[in-house]
Write a structure and sequence with these properties.
single chain, alpha+beta, Elongation Factor Tu (Ef-tu), domain 3, two-stranded antiparallel sheet, 2 helices, 4 strands, Transl_B-barrel_sf
């Protein structure tokens, strides 16, 4: 299969033992199991390249879910395909019904 096994880093550890060792003040090098998770994430960051994003084109986000939250309003979640957006900017909602304009009132990002 031409899998580059000799080049792939292998990090051993136990997520369960790391979770059991966590405290509010857990920091790098505080515990060998917690350190294994830090080592894993460092290796992932070094080995897997960040995807290239086209930030020069107009904003486009594929909507995955829409929920209504009391006191907050309608919240749309999805993946940004291209472009950039800021709070206060106007966007167009395009889909099966007529296009509708709305204003971005908040942004959150989950990694």
């Amino acid at each position: 299969y031409e899998y580059p096994g000799e080049e792939i880093p292998i990090i051993t550890g136990s997520a369960l033992l790391a979770l059991e060792s966590l405290t509010e003040n857990s920091i790098e090098n505080c515990n060998k199991w917690v350190q294994k998770i830090y080592d894993l994430m460092k290796t992932v960051d070094e080995y897997i390249p960040l995807p290239k994003r086209d930030t020069e084109k107009p904003f486009l986000m594929a909507i995955e879910n829409v929920v209504s939250i009391t006191g907050r309003g309608t919240v749309a979640t999805g993946r940004v395909e291209r472009g950039m957006i800021e709070v206060g900017q106007t966007v167009e909602l395009v889909g099966l019904k007529n296009t509708k304009e709305t204003i971005i009132t908040g942004l959150e990002m989950f990694q």
